Amino acid sequence: MLQQYKHILVAVDGSYEAEIAFKKAIAVAQRNDAELLLVHIVDTRAFQNVSSFDSAMVEQVTAAAKKTMADYVQTAQDAGLQDVSYTIEYGAPKTVIARDIPKERQIDLIMIGATGLNAVERLLIGSVTAYVTREAPCDVLVVRTDLANKPVLATTKQPSQDNEE
Fold this sequence. Notes:
The protein is α/β, with parallel strands linked by helices. It has helices at residues 16-32, 55-78, 93-105, 119-125, 128-135; strands at 7-11, 35-43, 84-91, 109-113, 139-143. It is globular, with a radius of gyration of 16 Å. It has a 5-stranded parallel beta sheet with strand order 3-2-1-4-5, sandwiched between helices.
């Protein structure tokens, strides 16, 4: 009996690695006739040290995220997916991706890029991907290759120029 996923979460953060995870998630959702939920987390810790913090900053970040997510939804729909949606959440990406959303939405597969942060950020706050693979209550697919199954290199930042489609 083959495993069939029904509710797939893909985390997107604007990185090249997340873009590749998104593209692969479309293909997995198509093969499984599954719902695809796109998730972007606004890391509220980034605003804690801003002395002149105001709600306009959060509104700007949210507006940019909504535009990006709408573009992702359109791309997935153009690829033939019917059941695709997104959510923008606020908080610590690790726990929101690994625990909160999977429980709320009955997620049975999380797809996430191998890295999304630079080396200094990973050292200071730890890898979101590593945390998700340890703590998620469902299967986690860590995307390490592009659609041609070639290793994803963090230095390659132009997914639109790849011959992946």
